[in-house]
Amino acid sequence: MRYSGWNVITEGLLGNKGWGRAWRDPAPKAEYDAIIIGGGGHGLATAYYLAKNHGLTNIAVLEKGYLGSGNIGRNTTIVRANYFLPGNSEFYSHSLKLWEKLETELNYNVMHSQRGHIILFHSDGQRDAAVRRGNAIVNQGDDAELLSVPQLKEMLPYLDYNQTRFPIYGGLIQRRAGTARHDAVAWGYARAADKLGVDLIQNCEVTGIDITDGRVTGVQTTRGPIRAKKVGMVVAGRSSQVAAMAGMRLPIESHVLQAFVTEGLKPVIDNVVSYGMGHFYISQSDKGGLVFGGDIDMYSSYASRGNLPMVEHVMEAGMTLMPMLARARVLRSWGGIMDMTPDGSPIIDKTHIDGLFVDAGWNYGGFKAAPASGWCMAHLMATGATHDVAARFRLDRFRTGNLMDEEGTGSQHNLH
Ligand SMILES: Cc1cc2nc3c(=O)[nH]c(=O)nc-3n(C[C@H](O)[C@H](O)[C@H](O)COP(=O)(O)OP(=O)(O)OC[C@H]3O[C@@H](n4cnc5c(N)ncnc54)[C@H](O)[C@@H]3O)c2cc1C
User: Fewer CB atoms inside 10 A, N or C side of the chain?
Assistant: First the structure.
């Protein structure tokens, strides 16, 4: 059934008995034209665009848990296109454009809210960097605007502007940036892909990748072997483990990133705000909780829970920036496993094995990337050619040295 205001009203009046399941629960077939490993945002988007843009519908998404159980349902939901480096810049710009039409495209309310994302700066040097970044964003065709302290005070009256260590000098806003409901993005892509005939197979862990004479022939799963000539590895924090099934060693480390939400409060934070002197970002969810996070836990791990030193660090950064946070009570915290590359930029590429593709290395910025990642991965898997906006996300850049270090922090996974 199509979702519409009319149907919501009619169903409300008729006792909501007419809604069907959002997607089917098919048994795996013996063979597909293509298989996507991983039912997160990127895997589901890849499947959807393979079907929608390339007419490939005999495909399956294999998910070891339930759809949306990974990072797609764990992130702090920030969507923006304010990247600086060529390569990243055009890709995230493309993604934001897809976000702007996503709800109509999927016929699903992903609660995309363009409430503006503000990066604060706290020194003359940081102001110069913000101006430079702003100019790069505008040159890319997206929006960026410098905000003075009086402007900021009007928009964000709750910040501590005169802290002695890190006084606020101004901010860079992207008004088209904002947030979306994270798991709704997985559900929206899932429902739309299912409608186009894609098999979404949950509780189906891939345990092996079959390769004959340098060519992929299928996968082994907890629900039996499945043949396919094309296989996409789209498993975020588990990328190294799944690639190892094909004998590959990826330039990726897995790290934990935590997030926090407070009890529901009346509207107080209208935008997404990022602190310039500490790793801290915050927004308010539509339910009223303040959703915030900081840095990764800094050592590699596959445990999707965090540790106390980083909790303390995030709380300190938040309190320094907005002392009012002391009055809020934290309701929940959780962690997700990040696929960190040494330069902080992602990979969408073929591998040396024929028919085996990889989409990984999203670090902690892959939520906003989901639409463009799916779009470009689908293009690559369907045509064999790299999409223009993902042209620099090559696996061999770690060999050639053609890195994209957006943060400028050097070749260490945990620093990005
Ligand atoms: C706390 C936190 C905050 C974040 N904040 C932001 C943010 O504000 N903005 C932003 O842009 N990004 C953010 N991110 C990053 C973003 O969530 C991720 O980069 C992105 O979701 C990763 O892609 P995905 O959705 O496909 O991953 P996932 O949802 O993790 O999907 C991968 C799937 O693969 C499955 N899988 C793994 N191994 C196998 C196997 N062997 N067989 C079958 N299936 C398998 C997993 O179960 C999982 O469901 C954040 C992440 C976290 C954890």
Answer: N
Ligand 1 centre to CA of 397 (Å) is 23
pLDDT grade, residue 278 (50/70/90)? confident
Ligand 1 contact, 364 CB (< 6 A): yes
Quick: pLDDT tens for 120-150: 999 999 999 999 999 999 999 999 999 999 9
pLDDT score of 329 more than 90: yes
Q: Is the CB of 189 under 6 A from ligand 1?
A: no
Measure 238 CA to ligand 1 centroid, in angstroms: 9
At residue 343's C-alpha, the angle toward residues 374 and 64, to 5°, is 40
**Residue 44 neighbours by CB distance under 10 Å:** 32
- Measured from the CB, is residue 283 less than 6 Å from ligand 1? no
Judge whether 298 and 414 are in contact, CB under 8 Å: yes
Does the beta carbon of 42 lie inside 6 Å of ligand 1?
yes
Tell me the per-residue pLDDT of 338-397, one tens digit each, with 9 for 90 and over.
999 999 999 999 999 999 999 999 999 999 999 999 999 999 999 999 999 999 999 999
Q: What single string gives the DSSP state of each residue in 9-41?
A: HHHHHTTS-----SS--PPPPSEEEEEEE--SH
Cα of 131 from ligand 1 centre, angstroms: 32
Is the CB of 80 inside a 6 Å radius of any atom of ligand 1? no
Query: Each residue of 334-343: b (16+ CB within 10 Å) or e?
Result: ebbbbbbbbb
